[in-house]
Design goal:
Blueprint: H1 5-8, H2 12-76, H3 80-83, H4 86-97, E1 104-108, E2 114-117, H5 132-141, E3 145-146, E4 150-151, E5 158-168, E6 171-181, H6 183-190, E7 199-203, E8 209-212, H7 216-219, H8 226-234, E9 237-243, E10 249-256, E11 263-269, H9 270-273, H10 275-311, H11 314-321, H12 334-431, H13 437-464, E12 472-475, H14 476-493, E13 497-502, E14 507-510, H15 512-533, E15 539-547, E16 550-557, H16 587-598, E17 602-608, E18 611-617
Parallel strand pairs: 13-15
Antiparallel strand pairs: 1-2, 1-6, 3-5, 4-5, 5-6, 7-8, 7-11, 9-10, 10-11, 12-14, 15-16, 16-18, 17-18
Helix pairs in contact: 2-10, 11-12, 12-13, 12-14, 14-15, 15-16
Length: 618
C-alpha cells in the first residue's frame, strides 16, 4: 500500500511529543553540564583531601621520628659516655625502650663496631653495623641521620634506624642509634584513617617501601614501581589517577618529608572516593527520566484532545469549499471554538465577496477596454516619434550631402581653372610655333596630376560620409587634418585665416567619421556666419589639447558670436537662424547626439571676445 502525502505528514500528537522532547533536550544538556561540573569539582575535592591526608600522615611520621631523635639526643647527653660505662648505658637504653616496644638501641664507634645492642644480652659479642654509610655520615657531618630501610646485622629483620652523634669534648665519639621495625610506622599510618578502604605507604629515599597499612609482609622491603614511582621522581608532592591490575582506577596522593626525605603515599579506590557522587547522579538521572516520560505522556494526552477539536472543523471547512454556509460546531478548547465561529463568519463573508467579485470583474473588463485603447494611442504616438527621428536622420543626411556638394565645388573650382588654362596652352603655343613634344608631355603630366587630385577629392568625401559600424581608437589631430582638407577651399574663397594650435597628441575611442562630421558641421556654421556678416578679417582657430585624461577640441571664430537669447536653443532639433532655404536646424542637434550619446562626451557652445567658441570634450 502506497502512503498518500496526507498519511506521510506528522500528526499533532507526534509533533507535540517532539516539542516536549525538544524542550527537555536543553534541560538534559544543562543537567549533563552540571553533572560534569559536579564530577570535576568532586574529583578536585577528593584530590585536595587526599593530598591534605598525605601531608598529615607525613607530619605524623615526622613527629614519630622526631620523638625518637629527641629521646636519643637526651640519652646521648648521659655522663656514662664520657666514663665509657657501657653497662650503665645498656640499662639506661632499656629504660628508654619501654616507650618504644620492639625497638633496639645500638652504640657504635667510628668503625661501626657495635659496643651496645639492647637486642643482645649485656656482654654478648656484637658485629659491626650493617649500614656503614650512616655511621660514616654521623662522624663526618655530626648531624642526626634517618636511615633508609635496611636489614639489621643482629636481628636480621627489616628495620629503620635513627642515628644521632654523641659529642664529647667537641668531637663525635660515638654513634647512638635506635632501630625499630616498619610495623611502628604502619601503626602511625593506620591511626590517621580518613577513608574506609584507603591504604597508606611509606617509601624511603631509595624508593623502597618502608611501611604500609595493609599487606606488610607482601610489600615491605620491595621497590615501588609504576606510575607512582615516576611521579615521586618528578615532584615532592602531588596527586594522580592509577590504573590497577584488575581494570579499576585508584586515586593517589603523595607528600615528601623534609625531615627524613621519605615520602608518604595515600591511595583509595575511585568507586569508594566517588561513591556519594555516583549515588547522587543515579538519583538525578532517574528523576530526570521519570519527569521526561511524564511530560511526553501528558503531551500525547493533550495532543489527542487538540486533534479531536481540529478534526471537528473539517466539516465547516468543506462547506466553505462548496460555497455553502458552514454549520456551527462545539469544541473543547476556546481557540478551536473561536476558529469554528470564524469559519461560519468566513462562509458568509465569502458569499458576499463573491457578489462583489462579479461586480469587480465587470468593472475590470471595462478598465481593460480603456487600457487597450490607451495602449493603441501610445503605439501610434511611438510610431510618430520614430517617423520624426527618421525624418531628422534623412534631413541630416540631405544637409550633409548638400554640404558635400558645395565643398566639392569649392575644392574643384581652382583645379578646374588650372585645367582650363592647361587645355588652352597647346593651341596658343601651336600658333606661336613653339609647340613641341617636350611641351606636350609636360602639359599632359600637369593635367593628369590635377585630374588625380580631383579624383582623390571625390574619394575623400565618399570615405568621410561612410558610416562607422565599430568604435575605433583614433587620433584627434588626424581627423582634424582630414576635415580641414575638405573645407580649406571654401574657407580660402572667403579669405578666412585658418590657424591650428596643438598641445599633445590625444587619442579617443569612438567613431572617427562621425567625429569628423561634427567638426565639419561646426566649421561650416562658422564659415556661413562669417559670410553672412561680412567680417573684415575673418579668422578661425582650431585648438587640440588633452586635459584630465580627456581630449579637448575647440573651434573659435570672430564672426561676432551667438545672440544670447538663442544661445540655449542652438542644439534643439529644427532650430535654425539661416531661413528655410539655407538650413534645416538638425546639424547641431545631430552633432550633440553623436558626441554625448554615441561617444559619451560633451559638446558645448559659448561666446568669447568677438565671436563664438564650440568645445568638444571626449
Amino acid at each position: 500500500m502506497i502512503d498518500t502525502p496526507q498519511q506521510r505528514r506528522p500528526s499533532i500528537r507526534r509533533q507535540l511529543s517532539i516539542l516536549v522532547a525538544a524542550c527537555v533536550l536543553p534541560v538534559w544538556l544543562i543537567a549533563a553540564v552540571m553533572a560534569r561540573h559536579a564530577y570535576v569539582s568532586n574529583l578536585d575535592q577528593v584530590s585536595r583531601d587526599m593530598l591534605e591526608n598525605a601531608r598529615a600522615m607525613t607530619m605524623a611520621v615526622d613527629r614519630e621520628l622526631a620523638n625518637v631523635q629527641a629521646s636519643l639526643s637526651a640519652l646521648g647527653s648521659s655522663p656514662s659516655f664520657e666514663k665509657g660505662d657501657f653497662v650503665a648505658l645498656h640499662h639506661q637504653s632499656r629504660e628508654i625502650l619501654k616507650n618504644y616496644p620492639g625497638a633496639d638501641i645500638i652504640v657504635a664507634d667510628r668503625t661501626g663496631q657495635q659496643l651496645v645492642n639492647t637486642y643482645r644480652p649485656l656482654g654478648s659479642k656484637l658485629p659491626k653495623r650493617n649500614n656503614p654509610d650512616t655511621v660514616r655520615r654521623i662522624f663526618e657531618e655530626g648531624k642526626p641521620v634517618v636511615s633508609n630501610l635496611f636489614r639489621g646485622a643482629v636481628t636480621k629483620r627489616p628495620v629503620i634506624a635513627i642515628d644521632v652523634p654523641v659529642v664529647i669534648n667537641g668531637a663525635v665519639a660515638y654513634d647512638l642509634s635506635m632501630s625499630f621495625p616498619s610495623l611502628v610506622l604502619s601503626s602511625v599510618l593506620q591511626s590517621q584513617n580518613v577513608f574506609k578502604d584507603w591504604y597508606g605507604t611509606v617509601v624511603d629515599r631509595n624508593g623502597v617501601i618502608t611501611a604500609r597499612t595493609r599487606n606488610l609482609d607482601e610489600y615491605v622491603g620491595k621497590e615501588l614501581t609504576g606510575d607512582l614511582r615516576a611521579a615521586l621522581s618528578r615532584s615532592n608532592e602531588g596527586t594522580l589517577l592509577i590504573a590497577t591490575a584488575k581494570g579499576g582506577t585508584t586515586f593517589a596522593a603523595f607528600s615528601k618529608s623534609s625531615f627524613s626525605g621519605w615520602t608518604v603515599a595515600v591511595a583509595v579506590p575511585a568507586e569508594v572516593a566517588l561513591a556519594d557522587l555516583y549515588s547522587w547522579m543515579r538519583w538525578a538521572v532517574g528523576i530526570g527520566v521519570a519527569s521526561s516520560l511524564l511530560g511526553i505522556l501528558l503531551a500525547c494526552w493533550l495532543a489527542s484532545r487538540i486533534a479531536r477539536d481540529i478534526q471537528s472543523l473539517v466539516q465547516p471547512a468543506l462547506a466553505i469549499g462548496s460555497g455553502e454556509e458552514a454549520p456551527a460546531v462545539a469544541t473543547a478548547s476556546s481557540e478551536t471554538s473561536e476558529l469554528a465561529e470564524a469559519l461560519v463568519q468566513a462562509s458568509r463573508l465569502l458569499q458576499r465577496r463573491a457578489a462583489e467579485r462579479d461586480q469587480a470583474e465587470r468593472q475590470l473588463s471595462l478598465t481593460i477596454d480603456d487600457l487597450r485603447r490607451e495602449t493603441a494611442e501610445r503605439i501610434r504616438a511611438m510610431e510618430e516619434v520614430r517617423r520624426q527621428e527618421q525624418l531628422l536622420t534623412q534631413q541630416s543626411r540631405q544637409a550633409a550631402l548638400g554640404e558635400m556638394v558645395g565643398n566639392i565645388a569649392h575644392q574643384w573650382r581652382q583645379p578646374l581653372n588650372a585645367l582650363g588654362l592647361l587645355v588652352q596652352q597647346p593651341l596658343l603655343f601651336h600658333e606661336l610655333g613653339q609647340l613641341d613634344r617636350e611641351f606636350l608631355e609636360e602639359n599632359v603630366a600637369k593635367s593628369m596630376a590635377i585630374v588625380r587630385h580631383m579624383s582623390q577629392t571625390i574619394d575623400d568625401f565618399r570615405n568621410f560620409f561612410r558610416p562607422d559600424k565599430e568604435k575605433l581608437r583614433f587620433k584627434v589631430a588626424d581627423e582634424v587634418a582630414k576635415v580641414l582638407s575638405l573645407v580649406d577651399g571654401s574657407l580660402q574663397s572667403l579669405g578666412v585665416s585658418l590657424r591650428v594650435q596643438q598641445q599633445g597628441d590625444p587619442e579617443v575611442d569612438g567613431y572617427p567619421n562621425e567625429f569628423a562630421q561634427v567638426l565639419l558641421n561646426i566649421l561650416v556654421n562658422a564659415r556661413d556666419a562669417i559670410a553672412e556678416r561680412g567680417v573684415a578679417a575673418p579668422a578661425v582657430q582650431v585648438s587640440i589639447a588633452e586635459q584630465a585624461g580627456r581630449a579637448v577640441l575647440t573651434v573659435t571664430d570672430n564672426a561676432g558670436g551667438i545672440p544670447e537669447e538663442i544661445l540655449p536653443r542652438i542644439f534643439d532639433p529644427y532650430f535654425t537662424t539661416k531661413g528655410p532655404q539655407a538650413g534645416t536646424g538638425v546639424g547641431l542637434f545631430m552633432s550633440k547626439t553623436i558626441i554625448e550619446k554615441n561617444m559619451g562626451g560633451l559638446l558645448t557652445a559659448c561666446n568669447v571676445d568677438g565671436g563664438a567658441q564650440f568645445r568638444i570634450e571626449v
